[in-house]
Amino acid sequence: MPGPCRSTWTSRSAEATLTGRPRSSGAVNTLEGGFFLDPTAKTDEAVRSVIATAMPNMTTSQLDELAHEMYTSVFDGSQGYADQGSRQMSINGDTYFYCNSLAVNEAYNGAAHAYEFAVTPGVHTQDIACTFDDPYSPSALAWARKTLSSLGHNQLYRLRLP
Predict the structure, then answer these.
(1) According to the UniProt record, where is the region Disordered (predicted)?
(2) What's the rounded mean pLDDT across residues 121-139?
(3) Least C-beta-crowded within 10 Å: which of 39, 49, 50, 130?
């Protein structure tokens, strides 16, 4: 199960009824948080330290809640991650991208639109070539570029491999 922001973001994406142009648009990639991973953080305390460094304004209780309640160190797959690295990716993706997309949407009373780019591997910035129809992007992503350009930027959807 993904983190709380990603779960909310995904469920709202599925329920959205779209009309008109968005006031703000954005995109997230499936593995956004991987780009910001600290591969040396292999323990709970090391991950907590990485979070504390990245988010210095968090109180101790907020940090404890994030590290020990919201993103527990249970690595059986039930949390959507299998080790400390994928746990960090989930935390990073949610806190830096999914939660911010939700905040923009709430600021515009639900009138902001975005999409999740879930084309493997789905890392940070991978969507840009497809979103802006870059003719120099790999031909393997040609179908994704075509799909994005045909849908336009005023829709909310999840792009998945066929």
Answers:
(1) 1-25
(2) 70
(3) 39
